[in-house]
Every structure is written in structure tokens, then in C-alpha cells.
């Protein structure tokens, strides 16, 4: 007895789509291609900055280097969807476009260097635009891969990409603080005065162009160098080293909170540090205060950072408990 098997056009189409989806759902290793792109970006960025000094800034270098380290620390991932096998190496036309974009960027930077140089590094709107423009050295990297492949990469390494972008914020608090210092400096000086006045009778606070705390034996002027923001920027890099070493066991959201909490903790600790110097200086230890203020600041901030890290490290690396 013979049976005739009939397959409808719709069923054949469904089978074809199913086979296509199975093929497209295969996963491919991507670590090598990402690392190559990042290393190439680092090298060409340095070349650009030598060729056009107006582009000189550490921000794109730190962002790229941070992303490279975190991707390397994360290790190989499997990328799902799309024809990722075509992206394991850079095509000739993509490399050519990448190089051409960098050459054009260097030529434009040299052309307009004289016009933008007066604003570079200034805490103004124009200076901010110049700083953002320097990040344009990262744009040509986009052409090394297709849009679909970049989308998959950023999905796979989303935490690493966010952390790399966060590196850009290391210098932001300092720039913001410098811009608002005329107002923040007065509030900062008043807070120090409030902390110290209970221990020094006759202490007064002079709100002027340069806030000063007037004491019976020593006067203390509050200038921008007293803000402690430079110490935070230095310790942020040390914190970054901790992040890289422990990246695979971190709870990423908590690590971000710890990072921003470090800024607040450092600023408050610095206020207590200066208040203690005001008290000691007006209690007969002025000869001790001056060298201590100049030489022991780094020791103080490192000690405070270690205390802060010891208090937050376990919470930052605590594993999620399944319920």
C-alpha cells in the first residue's frame, strides 16, 4: 500500500525559516576582533595627537584602554545572531575608510587649531565643546565593524562599555567644581568654620573673594587647591585598578554607587582635614601644621580611601543569593 506525502507551500516555507533561524542562532567567538579594534584605536589615537597637538588629551586613551582591559578581563563571549563570522577580521575597505577618517580629522584639527586653542582646557562652554571635539578620534573606530555587529558587541559587553564611558567622568567633578568654585568655595569655607569654631574661641569667618577663616594665632585662606578634588581624581584611578582586578566578581550597579560615593566621602573627609589643621594652627601647633599640610595630604587621602574601600568592598562584591 503506497502513501503519498504532500507538503504544502506554507509548510515548506516554515521549514525554510526554521532552518535559517537555527543557522542564525549559532554563536561565534568575538574577543580577538574586539581587542584588535581597541588596540588599533589606541595606536592611531596616539599618532593623531602627535600629528595634531590640539587633539592632545588623555580621555580617549583612558576610555579605550579601560574598555580593552575590561573586555580582556571578561574573557571570551559567544555572540548570538547575525553572520558574525564575516566580522572576525577587518575588510580592506573598512581599514581604508578608518585611515581616511583619521587623516581628515588630523587635517581639520590642524586647520582650526589656532581658533580653538585659546579655549582648550578652560572651564567655559567653549572649552567644553573643544574637549568633546577631542573625543572625535574615537569615531572612526565605528567603521571597523558593521552596525549589526556593533549592536551585538555592545549587547554582549554592555557592562564593560558603560564602565569605559564612566572613565570620562573622572575629570568632570573637577571641572564642575572649578566652574562653581566662587559659590562652592564660600559654602566649603563656612562648613570648615562650623566644624572648627567649637574648638577655637574667637574664630571668625570672612566671606570675600577668597574666603578666609580668621583665628587668634593663624588665618586660613580657602582656595581651589584646598578642594581635594585632585586627590579624588588620583584615587579614582586606583579604584579603577581594583575594578579591573575584580571585574568578574563585581556587582556592577553597586560598584558605580561606590565610585560616586567615593567623591562625596573624599570631599567631606577633606573638610574635616582642613578643620583639624585650623584647630591645630590656632592651638599653638602652627609650625607643625604647615609642613603637615604640604606633605601629608597624600597619606591622609590614601588612608581615607583604604578605609572607605574596606567598608564597601564586601558589599560591592557580594554574590546574589537565589531565593
Describe this structure in words.
With 323 residues, this protein is mostly helical. It contains 13 helices and five strands. It has helices at residues 9-24, 31-51, 59-74, 92-116, 125-134, 147-156, 158-167, 172-179, 181-197, 229-245, 252-281, 286-295, 297-317; strands spanning 27-29, 78-80, 204-206, 212-214, 219-221. The strands form two sheets. Strands 3-4-5 form a three-stranded antiparallel sheet, covered by helices on one side. Strands 1-2 form a two-stranded antiparallel sheet. The longest helix is centred in the last third of the chain and has 30 residues, at 252-281.
User: Biggest sheet, strands in spatial order?
Assistant: 3-4-5
Task: Please state the overall shape, judged from the principal axes of the Cα atoms.
Answer: globular
H-E string: HEHHEHHHHHHEEEHHHH
**Average residue-wise pLDDT:** 80
From the N-terminal CA to the C-terminal CA, the straight-line distance is 59 Å
- By secondary-structure content and strand pairing, the structural class works out as mainly alpha
Give the low-pLDDT segments.
1-28, 81-86
Q: Strand percentage, roughly? A: under 5%
Query: What is Rg?
Result: 28 Å
Biggest pleated-sheet summary: 3 strands, antiparallel
Overall strand count: 5
Percent of residues in helices comes to 55-70%
Number of domains: 2
Amino acid at each position: 500500500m503506497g502513501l503519498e506525502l504532500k507538503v504544502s507551500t506554507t509548510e515548506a516555507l516554515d521549514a525554510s525559516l526554521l532552518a535559517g533561524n537555527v543557522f542564525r542562532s549559532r554563536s561565534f567567538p568575538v574577543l580577538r576582533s574586539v581587542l584588535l579594534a581597541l588596540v588599533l584605536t589606541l595606536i592611531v589615537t596616539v599618532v593623531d595627537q602627535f600629528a595634531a597637538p590640539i587633539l592632545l588629551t588623555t580621555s580617549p586613551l583612558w576610555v579605550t584602554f579601560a574598555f580593552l582591559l575590561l573586555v580582556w578581563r571578561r574573557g571570551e563571549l559567544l555572540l548570538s545572531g547575525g553572520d558574525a563570522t564575516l566580522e572576525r577580521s577587518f575588510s580592506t575597505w573598512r581599514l581604508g575608510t578608518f585611515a581616511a577618517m583619521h587623516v581628515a580629522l588630523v587635517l581639520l584639527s590642524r586647520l582650526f587649531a589656532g581658533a580653538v586653542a585659546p579655549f582648550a582646557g578652560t572651564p567655559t562652554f567653549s572649552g567644553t565643546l573643544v574637549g568633546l571635539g577631542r573625543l572625535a578620534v574615537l569615531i572612526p573606530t565605528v567603521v571597523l565593524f558593521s552596525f549589526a555587529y556593533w549592536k551585538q558587541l555592545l549587547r554582549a559587553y554592555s557592562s564593560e562599555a558603560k564602565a569605559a564611558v564612566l572613565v570620562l567622568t573622572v575629570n568632570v567633578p573637577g571641572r564642575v567644581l572649578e566652574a562653581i568654585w566662587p559659590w562652592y568655595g564660600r559654602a566649603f569655607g563656612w562648613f570648615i568654620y562650623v566644624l572648627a569654631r567649637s574648638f577655637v574661641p574667637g574664630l571668625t569667618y570672612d566671606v570675600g573673594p577668597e574666603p578666609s577663616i580668621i583665628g587668634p594665632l593663624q588665618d586660613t585662606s580657602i582656595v581651589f587647591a584646598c578642594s581635594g578634588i585632585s586627590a579624588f581624581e588620583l584615587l579614582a584611578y586606583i579604584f579603577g585598578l581594583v575594578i579591573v582586578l575584580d571585574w568578574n566578581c563585581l556587582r556592577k550597579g553597586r560598584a558605580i554607587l561606590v565610585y560616586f560615593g567615593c567623591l562625596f566621602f573624599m570631599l567631606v573627609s577633606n573638610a574635616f582635614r582642613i578643620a583639624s589643621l585650623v584647630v591645630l594652627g590656632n592651638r599653638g601647633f602652627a609650625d607643625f601644621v604647615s609642613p603637615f599640610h604640604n606633605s601629608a595630604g597624600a597619606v591622609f587621602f590614601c588612608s581615607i580611601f583604604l578605609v572607605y574601600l574596606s567598608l564597601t568592598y564586601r558589599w560591592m562584591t557580594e554574590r546574589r543569593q537565589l531565593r
